[in-house]
Amino acid sequence: MPHASAQLRRSVLFMPASNTRALDKARTLDADVLVFDLEDAVAPEQKATARDNAVSAATSYDYGRREVIVRINELASEWGLADLQAAAASSFAGVMLPKVESGETIREVRAALMQASSEPMLPLWIMVETPRGVLALDDIISAATAEPDRGPLVVGTTDLASRLGVSPLGERAGLQHALGQCVLAARAHGLDIIDGVYLTLRDDEGFAATCAQGREWGFTGKSLIHPSQIATANKVFGVSDSEAEQAREIIAAWEAAQESGSGIAVVRGKLVEVMHVDEARHTLDLYAAANN
Q1: How far apart are CA 9 and CA 194, in angstroms?
Q2: Rounded to 5 degrees, what are φ and ψ at 104?
Q3: In a shared domain, residues 218 and 279
Q4: Which one of 45, 100, 119, 239 is most buried, counting C-beta atoms within 10 A?
Q5: What pTM does this model have?
Q6: Which residues contact 164 (CB under 8 A, 6 or more apart)?
């Protein structure tokens, strides 16, 4: 499979769409992705108002380079279909689907979107939050990637940990197998994958460590619950100047080897193969996106 997209998704900030001040302030934040949440962060009596707020903000405000996504309520809920119809008629960059457990859910959402709008299909951001969802990932992603525009996989680690009976904190040892399955499935289909939230605020060291762990495990970025977490996520999941320089060295050495006919390139004592060149080019694409 090809690399996941070069779209920056280091920091994915969730905010309740019932809070109009937060939606306004989001225009000044350095998050790569803004998620206007209609689901967990919104009380039942505020659902309709939050939906209107989200559509109004996405339509009226200029959020610049940021991807603006809406997380709807489950399609089977009393609000889900109205959420989806509103999203289809708006200017959102994608729709996030919570608690997906089967490919059938994706097909139902696609059918509802086709009825709601004749515009190009909105990318679907799939949330896996349950053991059943993890086990069905290949079917789920296969259904979601039937369209050209594909959103990433987002892991809801809080709910997943609760269902598994393990802790989402610390080293996350109890989650490691399930998260590995999620990364494996996403990468098999060429998708970005976003790690779950870190619920303890004012714990900069713990948050940075969890971000570093997520990147090591193969995640593209981090779900966030507060603007104070943005800078750390952008740094940890971003491409540093030194990483970009090494990527340039790899590409240059490979091209020089090809031109000389030797076919062998070595950079910093390591043999360079085609996959390393592909990775280096992807790294530079991300670096360029972050520095434009």
Answers
A1: 8
A2: -60, -35
A3: no
A4: 100
A5: 0.92
A6: 131, 174, 175, 178
